[in-house]
Amino acid sequence: MAQQLIPADDFLKLTLNNPLGLAPFGFTLANGIEVKVWDSGVISFEPAGETTEDVVLSCGVHGNETAPIEICAAIVQDILTGRLAVNVRLLVLFGNPPAINAGTREITENLNRLFSGHHSKGAGLINPERQRAKALEQYVTQFYQGLPVTNNVMRNRSLYDLHTAIRGSRFEKFAVYPYLHGKPWRQAEFTFLAACDVYTVLLMQTPASTFSYYASNEHGANSFTIELGKVKPFGQNDMARFAKADSSLRALICNKPVKSGAFDHSQFNMYQVYRSIIKQTEDFKLHFADDIENFTSYPLGSLLATDGNIEYRVEQEGEALIFPNANVAIGQRAMLMVVPSSVIDNLQ
Ligand SMILES: [Zn+2]
After folding, report:
1. Spatial CB neighbours of 85, under 8 Å, sequence gap ≥ 6
2. Residues around ligand 1, an ion, CB closer than 5 A
3. What percent of the chain has pLDDT over 90?
4. How far is the CA of 66 from the centre of ligand 1 (A)?
5. Residue 164 and residue 159: Cα distance in Å, rounded?
6. Cα(67) to centroid of ligand 1, in Å?
7. CA of 49 to the centre of ligand 1 (A)
8. What is the DSSP string of 204-258?
9. Separation CA 348–CA 336 (nearest Å)
10. CB 338, CB 271: distance < 8 Å
């Protein structure tokens, strides 16, 4: 079975040649790492020695976000060819293979709005993205539950869902830290983000239908959506811009300390959501340039958007906008407004 991979050692190619599914198979590498292909875009690595970390890396949840796909594909390839040691249990996921093939964000529905059971709400599992969201949840569950938590070995679960944004950003890289339901934000995670060159963090205050919230809420994983820069076609990414994220993820996989100093709150731009602006009519209109950067802010009172008779103006000092998109369906989020925040009062 290993022959399917060994000639090219190219799991991404195997995935994209079989976007709708792959029969599971497995093999053991010369260094003792047990490799299992679970499905198209789903591959796990289990080292022979004892581990304490269960790490999930995901990319391609949005099919046209190529840089993270290239980073993860290279990591998988380096593991398969014995160039990268694995000292954690590792699951690597290429989220939406048909959309990667199509070079589009999605085929019919935004995969990153379908987790925590949202795939089965309303009309149910009516399209491949809904079916994939459900399958990815099952794979993550199976992976985290693959080794039971015992009294003497504390296992640490993490999930890093890697993305690139559609538009430029005032802060090129940023992470979304899912709502923790009052549990403390984790200092060690901020130092890991800093090692990845991510110093802007959006601290969520409500549940979400994202993959990262799912892993955090359902599995207690240290989990993040990480936006690594702007979307570019395959082969056109300046990989030097992602070098720190790449080397930190590789250090994590080897279970080596990442290169980062002590946590320093002043290095970070922390934000929290102030309001979510929902498109209510077909007349919804954004009142700024189409290529506006994420985290842009305007003076108090500035007109941001209109929706029929409704006007949205800047209400808070430092209020900044992210993910503006007037083309969403009615009832969907057209823009998120965020304000400066802090983790000092609830940090572990
Ligand atoms: Zn994305």
Report:
1. 31, 253, 254
2. 62, 65, 163
3. 82
4. 10
5. 16
6. 11
7. 34
8. --S--SSHHHHHHHHH--EEEEEEEEE---TT-S-GGGGHHHHHHHHHHHHTPPP
9. 27
10. yes
Go through the domains of the chain in sequence order and give each one's CATH number: 2-266 (3.40.630.10), 277-346 (2.40.50.630)
- Higher-confidence residue of 213 and 237: namely 213
Which of 286, 325, 331 lies closest to 305 in space, CA to CA? 286
| Rounded average pLDDT over 53-57 | 97
* Euclidean distance between CA atoms 171 and 321, whole angstroms: 12
3-state helix, strand, coil in the chain (%, to 5): 25, 25, 45
CA of 328 relative to ligand 1 center, distance in Å: 15
Burial of residue 207, with CB atoms counted within 10 A of its CB: 0-12 exposed, 13-18 middle, 19 or more buried: middle
At residue 42 the predicted structure's pLDDT band, cuts being 50, 70 and 90, is very high
Match 């992976």 to its residue by tokens. 143
Residue 3 CA to ligand 1 center (angstroms) comes to 33
Residue 152 has pLDDT above 70, yes or no: no
Distance 193 CA to ligand 1 centre (A): 18
**Which residues lie across from 5 on neighbouring strands?**
none
Pairing of strands 89-94, 25-28: unpaired
E-strand ranges in 137-187 read 156-165, 174-177
How many A from CA of 226 to the centre of ligand 1? 9
**227 noted as active-site residue:** yes
Which residues are paired to 247 by β-bridges? Answer: none
Distance between CA atoms of 156 and 168, rounded to whole angstroms?
33
Return the structure tokens found at 57: 């890396």
- Specify the pLDDT at position 344: 87
Is pLDDT at 2 greater than 70 in this prediction? no
Q: Supply φ then ψ for residue 28, to 5 degrees.
A: -115, 135
Token pair of 219, please? Answer: 């599995």
At residue 1, the pLDDT reads 45
106, 189, 227, 319: which one is catalytic? 227
342 contacts: CB under 8 Å, gap ≥ 6: 265, 270
Dist. CA 231 → ligand 1 center (Å): 9
What is the chain's length? Answer: 348
